[in-house]
């Protein structure tokens, strides 16, 4: 953006809005006062009403910060990150502690902001959030980028492909299916058969089974998700590392 | 170059600083520690002392002054010390502790503005409290107007500088708001003792009075007392106050952390 962060922190901060994971505001300021205060920090701030409506803060304007619930504090924090009409907004764990409805609303707000041309850097543990909102995802594993790309490309790269799960009406041999080009592996979990592969996997599997006189019951289809990609690419659990998405 | 940027950003809306000061004033009003202990209590004490008949008698042991005359400078010291040591440290340190300064550092506004705003709000409280003390004192209880107004002003300005500098060092050293409050109170009590809150300086044994002369509030009371009774305050008292101010500003500068 042609701004030297060392020389010109003020200009940089008017271009980049930040929502920090752990930060408080004075307990005895009212929500409206805080919004008004932060709005005064920027030369060309966002319209308050739109932000307030989008984040559902309208009824809380006269409440003290300390009386807000965790989710409301979070929404106020997001509002403050966007109030300066930044070019780039960094949102750290923005939906943590939000109820499902508030989470959906926040996603819609972020999509709206994104569609207006703001670059959003989203830090999250929630893979579904990254999958829904992000154009590009960087998986960060212990401080290093383990993989980078679009959510679909990452899931693909992880070799997740697709999975068909079903219970066969009668026993059959694995090679009936492994012979198919679409099928990569066949696995049995008790009664259930798990077929992994790519392309038109469901059609191929069902048609072949019918031809072999087997009916597939309780058919389920699973697409590889970002979560699979994370686990495969890092070989570790989600709790002790972070996904960082753009 | 970069230093001047961080202190005086050129393109910031000027109203931002005004808003910050306004909000700090609101917080001071709502938290009300400073209002109760720094403004209300000293004025209440002044009224109580003023109503006690014995306090209006001139006493040889007090150098011919009335007890009321003796207590006015002590209450002035009380106002400055209570606002500096009780009211100011809480917000200063809790802003760092709770990440409010860190949050601000992601906006165009430098976090130092908030600290400056807090100091300004507390200075205003000191001025308001002292104004009420002096007006009530003169109007209701017949204190003579200060004989050396210039000396009084100088004594008060230096006392404020010394006490606020001490407070800034406490805010710099303390890690938590509770720690800062404890340290502030622990400093307040001995300083007020040497100011003569419990035993007026005139009645202190010689050795104790000697120590008192070199404590910030002892020097403050001495300087204020002298200017009220008609002489320009002694250079030693003023120098003691100035020295405390300078030393503790340096201490605060060395130890202060933003995070």
What structural keywords apply?
heterodimer, A: 246 residues, alpha+beta, 6-stranded mixed sheet, 10 strands, disordered C terminus, B: 259 residues, mainly alpha
Structure description:
- The complex is a heterodimer of chains A (246) and B (259).
- Chain A is built from ten helices and ten strands.
- By secondary structure, chain A is an alpha+beta fold.
- In chain A, helix 7 crosses helix 10 (226-234).
- In chain A, strands 1-2-3-10-4-5 form a six-stranded mixed β-sheet. Chain A has a four-stranded antiparallel β-sheet with strand order 7-8-6-9, with helices on one face.
- Chain A has helices spanning 9-15, 31-39, 48-54, 70-82, 100-115, 127-133, 151-157, 175-178, 201-211, 226-234; strands at 16-19, 88-92, 119-124, 137-141, 144-149, 162-168, 183-189, 192-197, 216-223, 243-245.
- Chain B has 259 residues and is mainly α.
- Chain B has one domain.
- Helix content of chain B is 75%, strand content 0%.
- Chain B has helices spanning 2-7, 15-31, 33-51, 67-87, 89-97, 100-104, 112-141, 149-173, 177-195, 206-213, 216-229, 235-255.
- In chain B, helix 2 crosses helix 7.
- The radius of gyration of chain B is 19 Å and the shape is globular.
- The A-B interface holds A 6-11, 13-14, 16-18, 20, 22-26, 28-29, 33, 36-38, 40-43, 80, 84 and B 1-2, 5-6, 9-13, 15-16, 19-20, 23, 26-27, 30-31, 91, 95, 98-100, 102-103, 106-110.
């Amino acid at each position: 953006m042609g701004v030297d962060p060392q020389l010109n922190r003020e200009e940089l901060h008017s271009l980049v809005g930040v929502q920090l994971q752990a930060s408080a505001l004075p307990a005895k300021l009212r929500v409206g006062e805080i919004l008004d205060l932060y709005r005064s920090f920027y030369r060309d701030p966002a319209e308050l009403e739109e932000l307030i409506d989008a984040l559902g803060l309208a009824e809380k304007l006269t409440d003290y910060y300390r009386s807000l619930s965790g989710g409301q504090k979070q929404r106020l924090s997001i509002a403050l990150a966007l109030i300066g009409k930044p070019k780039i907004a960094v949102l750290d764990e923005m939906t943590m502690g939000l109820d499902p409805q508030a989470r959906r609303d926040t996603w819609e707000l972020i999509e709206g902001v994104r569609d207006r041309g703001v670059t959003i850097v989203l830090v999250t543990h929630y893979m579904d959030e990254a999958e829904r909102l992000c154009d590009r995802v960087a998986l960060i594993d212990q401080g290093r980028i383990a993989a980078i790309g679009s959510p679909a490309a990452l899931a693909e790269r992880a070799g997740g492909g697709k999975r068909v799960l079903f219970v066969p009406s009668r026993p059959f041999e694995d090679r009936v299916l492994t012979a198919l080009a679409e099928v990569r592996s066949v696995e049995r979990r008790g009664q259930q058969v798990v077929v992994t592969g790519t392309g038109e996997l469901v059609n191929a599997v069902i048609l072949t089974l019918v031809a072999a006189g087997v009916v597939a019951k309780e058919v389920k289809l699973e697409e590889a998700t970002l979560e699979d990609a994370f686990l495969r690419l890092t070989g570790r659990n989600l709790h002790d590392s972070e996904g960082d998405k753009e | 170059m970069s230093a001047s940027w961080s202190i005086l950003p050129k393109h910031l809306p000027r109203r931002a600083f005004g808003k910050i000061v306004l909000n700090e004033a609101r917080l001071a009003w709502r938290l009300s520690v400073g209002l109760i202990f720094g403004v209300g209590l000293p004025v209440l004490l002044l009224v109580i002392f003023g109503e006690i008949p014995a306090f209006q008698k001139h006493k040889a042991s007090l150098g011919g002054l009335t007890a009321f005359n003796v207590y006015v400078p002590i209450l002035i010291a009380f106002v400055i010390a209570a606002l500096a040591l009780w009211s100011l440290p809480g917000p200063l340190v809790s802003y760092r502790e709770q990440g409010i300064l860190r949050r601000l550092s992601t906006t165009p506004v430098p976090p130092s503005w908030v600290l400056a705003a807090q100091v300004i709000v507390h200075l205003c409280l000191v001025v308001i409290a002292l104004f009420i003390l002096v007006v009530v004192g003169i109007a209701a209880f017949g204190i003579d107007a200060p004989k050396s107004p210039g000396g009084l002003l100088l004594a008060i300005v230096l006392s404020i500088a010394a006490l606020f500098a001490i407070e800034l060092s406490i805010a710099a050293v303390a890690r938590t708001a509770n720690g800062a409050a404890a340290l502030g109170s622990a400093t307040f009590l001995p300083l007020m003792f040497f100011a003569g809150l419990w035993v007026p300086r005139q009645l202190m044994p010689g050795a104790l009075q000697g120590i008192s002369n070199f404590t910030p509030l002892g020097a403050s009371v001495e300087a204020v007392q002298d200017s009220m009774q008609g002489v320009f305050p002694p250079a030693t008292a003023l120098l003691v106050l100035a020295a405390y101010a300078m030393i503790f500003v340096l201490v605060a500068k060395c130890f202060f952390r933003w995070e």
